[in-house]
Design goal:
The complex is a heterodimer of chains A (249) and B (144). By secondary structure, chain A is an all-alpha fold. Chain A has helices at 2-71, 77-103, 107-119, 123-163, 169-196, 208-244. Chain A is built from six helices and no strands. Chain B is 49% helix and 0% strand. Chain B contains five helices and no strands. Chain B has helices at residues 3-12, 17-37, 51-57, 95-104, 110-132. The N and C termini of chain B lie far apart (142 Å). The relative contact order of chain B is 0.06. Classes of the chains: A mainly alpha (249), B mainly alpha (144).
């Protein structure tokens, strides 16, 4: 009898000891599952946020570029239409990618969206400098027209001074120099818009980058040539003022 | 009553009947003419005076033209002449001489030419900013 009682006691004791161990083992198993799925989800969400942020930056940039095009008084209407159409197309594509990024469930999907966002649109590396070059080129054409207008005004004034019997040959030489420089500058600046307008993301980095670098160099050279033309006109004006004794200068 | 005077008038009146009649007709015609002018609606009776009469009748007193040889602000002095010297204006013998002189000394608007140059400076500065803002080095910054 004593033996049976002792056996029952030992069995009860072992059972009492085994239950917490089993419970602890179950808890460890749950924790292990949480540890393996939690970081993955967090990483996925982080990547999603990053992709959405990058998409937003591009959409904001497109808005800014479109505003610059609309604000320009000098852009050729055909150039403005071309740029606006390209940017609107990219805006539509990026907006669609945004919706896809919100519903993506895997890293692979988000990475594909990221890839397409960069390679298919090239908002920062291509569209932004392309828009800047076109707007600057068209603005440069209007600068040349203004240089020509000032040159004509001074030439008319010089002709009237000459009628009064003065020697204005130096003034006329300076105006002619300014006219030649303006033509040189225009020859550099004017073709830039038509050169860079057709560039597409598929052409980046080559040949798009080298074409845009060459175009920017032409713009910089044209800018310097315009400066020289302006200096010649200013010198002509001062000389003319000296001749007639005016204090207008 | 002085009968001799009455007799004289009676006697003298019939001496120029035709002249008197003509005078009456003339007065009547003038009256009719004036009456027709006072009726603007009746176009058919308007008497238009001859062009020569209206031209000669117009006379407008004008101030003498300004001295075209004296340079004003911005005007061109001929070589060797100073603007501060007040010389008497040469009297032009013919109108053509005056016209030629005033054309030669027309004022030139150098002030506006320099304003255009200043506007050009501003425009060129804006252009330089636009060219300077072109950045070909910007990266996409989202390499997968």
């Amino acid at each position: 009898m004593k033996t049976r009682l002792f056996a029952a006691f030992v069995a009860a004791l072992m059972l009492a000891m085994a239950l917490p161990v089993a419970a602890m083992a179950q808890t460890d198993e749950v924790d292990a599952t949480e540890q393996s799925e939690g970081p993955r989800d967090r990483l996925l969400e982080e990547l999603r946020e990053r992709v959405l942020f990058q998409l937003d930056r591009r959409l904001d940039r497109i808005d800014r570029l479109q505003f610059e095009i609309r604000s320009s008084d000098t852009v050729e209407p055909e150039h403005a239409a071309h740029l606006t159409e390209d940017l609107a197309s990219s805006h539509g594509g990026l907006t669609a990618l945004e919706a896809m990024a919100r519903s993506a469930t895997t890293f692979e999907q988000l990475r594909a969206i990221q890839q397409e966002m960069v390679t298919e649109h090239r908002i920062f590396a291509l569209r932004t400098p392309q828009t800047g070059l076109v707007l600057a080129s068209d603005f440069g054409v209007s600068v040349a027209a203004h240089l020509g207008s000032v040159g004509s005004t001074l030439a008319e004034a010089a002709a009237r001074v000459a009628e009064a019997g003065y020697d204005v040959s130096d003034v006329e030489a300076l105006i002619a120099e300014a006219t030649d420089l303006t033509a040189d500058g225009l020859a550099l600046v004017d073709p830039v818009a038509e050169t860079v307008l057709p560039l597409e993301p598929a052409e980046f980095p080559d040949p798009a980058r080298s074409i845009m670098e060459s175009a920017r160099d032409d713009m910089i050279d044209g800018r310097q040539t315009y400066r020289d033309a302006r200096d010649s006109l200013r010198a002509a004006g001062r000389l003319l003022a000296d001749i007639v004794g005016s204090d207008a200068a | 009553v002085n009968l001799s005077t009455v007799e004289e008038r009676t006697v003298m009146t019939p001496k120029r009947p035709i002249a008197g009649l003509a005078a009456l007709l003339l007065i009547g015609a003038c009256g009719a003419g004036i009456q027709s002018r006072e009726r603007p609606g009746d176009q058919a009776e308007i008497v238009v005076p001859p062009m020569e009469a209206s031209t000669t009748s117009i006379h407008v007193d004008q101030d003498p033209p300004p001295d075209s040889t004296r340079p004003e602000a911005g005007a061109i002095d001929p070589p060797g002449r100073s603007t501060s010297t007040a010389e008497p204006a040469p009297v032009a013998e013919e109108d053509t001489t005056t016209t030629t002189t005033s054309t030669a000394y027309d004022a030139i608007d150098l002030q506006s030419a320099f304003e255009a140059l200043n506007a050009l400076d501003s425009m060129l500065g804006e252009f330089e900013s636009e060219v300077g803002a072109i950045d070909l080095e910007e990266e996409e910054g989202a390499t997968p």
